[in-house]
Amino acid sequence: MTGPVLDFNTASSPSQLRITDIRVADVSGAPMRCPLLKIATNQGLEGYGEVRDGADPVYALMLKRHLIGENPCDVDRIFRRLRQFGHHARQGGGVCGIEVALMDLASKAYGVPAYMLLGGKYRDKIRVYCDTDVDGRDTGEAMGEALKARMGQGYTFLKMDLGIGQIRHIEGALSAPLGYLGEQDGMREQLRAAAKAGDRDKTRFCRNRLYDMENTPHPFTGIRVTEIGFQALEDYVRKVRQAIGFEVPLAVDHFGHICVEDCIKLARRVEPYNLAWLEDMIPWQYTEQYVRLSNASATPICTGEDIYCKEGFQNLIDAGAVSVIHPDLLTAGGMLETKRIGDYACDRGVAVAMHMAESPIACLAAAHTCAAIPHFLALEFHSNDVPWWQDMVSYAPGGRIVDRGWIAVSQAPGLGIERLNDEVLAEHLTPGSPGLWLSTEEWNDWFSHDRLWS
Ligand SMILES: [Mg+2]
Questions:
Q1: What distance in angstroms lies between residue 180's CA and the mean position of ligand 1's atoms?
Q2: What distance in Å separates the CA atoms of residue 417 and residue 425, rounded to the nearest whole number?
Q3: Quick one: pLDDT at residue 11?
Q4: Contact residues for 45 (Cβ-Cβ < 8 A; gap 6+)
Q5: Centroid of ligand 1 to alpha carbon of 280 (angstroms)
Q6: 159 alpha carbon to ligand 1 midpoint, in Å?
Q7: How far is the CA of 46 from the centre of ligand 1 (A)?
Q8: Is the pTM of this model over 0.70?
């Protein structure tokens, strides 16, 4: 009996595919630290993943014992096994980075682009917004010119920073417990000096002390913006809009650790400037404060890049706390979980944008996921000014991955990456990293009794 002719990759046998190894390449300067992952299999297929920007590859390596011998096509089963080892922000990076590599492997094994495993695509190209963190950003004129240059490069959606970082130098712009801001500056200086002198004990001390200072949540810093400060921030936005006009969407981020009352005052103050969203004004955990902020302002309020898995987004969406969510799939739970999050938001009328400040691996994983979400605003790109960013990979479709503000969704199997370019990666290893793709055998049998209930 002759069956139907199926068009799939007979060179691979998905049901017999097994994971044999995981290796890492810890790269920095793209512009962040990007720990890249490679998962090897018994059929010669390799899957590429990445730990969240700025995090450590150990978050992924500690999971290796759960992966050896498994079929990577069982993406969801493996994800649910690993899920307990992820957490919010960078701590989600290991679980999510592995999930991306599994999705790359599974879609390569089936010979289809990764978006097909997410239910297919809603769009052929993904709008990219360009974050802009430029020299001279202390003035609205300089930022306006930098954003205009981005528009000249084809970008149709923009983002900039606006917060206490821009007004620190203005006398009378901020109030804070006397000495508080200077103490942080002093500790940063001590850290730089200790690191330069190679003093490891002092470096560790300063880093930990600074960690405590910088992780004081917004309500507890006592930092307030004065009327002089609010006027300066409003002037900044007005000058930016004078430069770029009102027709291009402009999102705003990095306000600094100020209380929700000052966030409300600032949000009201910038209403005439038609901003696309105000991002992460307060920690995402404070759902009730987000509701206050959203109810007090007519500018869309956004958060999400540090939320691990769907439940955190559900809480905010169900409470009416945000108008835009902004997951980073290397924290949110990988491609499949981010698709679930996007669907949930779309069902409830909350817009979806996506955070991404990583290598082409994460960028393409995000692009495939953005393609598979019903409604989608724009995907972040943080590496416009890194000339070797795309050279980290050989891109199967050829051409630029991010081309004049858009990503054409690749039709090549997997994420669309043929191979990683080791010569380029070797030039940009994170200082102190022992080398590229070294043996990780010491993680094969590392064991911990991690049962969550008895
Ligand atoms: Mg952000």
A1: 24
A2: 15
A3: 59
A4: 12, 17, 105, 108, 109
A5: 7
A6: 10
A7: 31
A8: yes
